[in-house]
Q: What sequence folds into this?
């Protein structure tokens, strides 16, 4: 199917690639479907585009690409709701808040997006952990993208 | 919104398996105990609000930082 997007033009997506956020994400509770779109070749960044809303999209990245020692233990609630059976089927992303430069941009490490790549069920998990910041600054030298 | 008055030590049940216990009331602070199944997430309101605000702030306004060209 053809999906109209505000920033990437028209893209051809397949229904099976739609990520299913059963409860949306905080602030966007009604947005249940998103797709991942590449932004540039070999980039650590991707676009998380809403399927419902043309001009709703986020930049996401791997938390492991922008910080060391990102340790995530998935709670039982998450394992159950996303039907995760093995850690091999888990992908983790952080939402990036773009500023005037990439170096000044920040990523939300406190509320990562957890995706079950097998069944495409996803959610934004809120970690009650002081070690992770909602606005973790991206450092240029660590960006390989 | 349903509003109930409770005293310390009193409880409220929500459905069959969530119990809220008012454990202590001291000045403007209330200590609340929550007994709920593990599949129910319990998050402080201000944390959820922070995440919600951060998500709103992160919505893409343009992709000028990237070389991506619209088709």
A:
């Amino acid at each position: 199917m053809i999906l109209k997007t505000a920033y990437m033009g028209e893209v051809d997506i397949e229904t099976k690639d739609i990520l299913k956020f059963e409860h949306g994400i905080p602030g966007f509770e009604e947005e249940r479907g998103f797709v991942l779109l590449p932004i540039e070749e070999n980039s650590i960044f991707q676009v998380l585009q809403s399927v419902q809303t043309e001009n709703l999209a986020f930049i996401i990245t791997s938390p492991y690409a922008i910080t060391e020692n990102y340790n995530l233990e998935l709670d039982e609630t998450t394992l159950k709701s996303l039907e995760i059976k093995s850690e091999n089927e888990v992908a983790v992303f952080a939402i990036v808040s773009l500023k005037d430069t990439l170096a000044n941009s920040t990523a939300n490490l406190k509320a990562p997006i957890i995706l079950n790549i097998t069944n495409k069920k996803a959610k934004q998990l809120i970690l009650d952990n002081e070690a992770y910041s909602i606005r973790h600054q991206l450092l240029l030298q660590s960006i390989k993208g | 919104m349903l509003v109930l008055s409770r005293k310390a030590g009193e409880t409220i049940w929500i459905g069959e398996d969530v119990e809220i216990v008012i454990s202590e009331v001291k000045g403007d602070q209330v200590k609340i105990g929550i007994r709920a199944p593990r599949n129910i997430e319990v998050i402080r309101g201000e944390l959820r609000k922070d995440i919600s605000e951060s998500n709103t702030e992160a919505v893409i306004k343009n992709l000028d930082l990237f070389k991506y060209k619209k088709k």
Remarks:
- Strands of chain B lie at 11-14, 18-26, 29-35.
- Residues 12 and 50 of chain B are 27 Å apart (CA to CA).
- Chain B touches chain A at residues 38-41, 43-44, 47-48, 50-63, 65-68, 70-71 (CB under 8 Å).
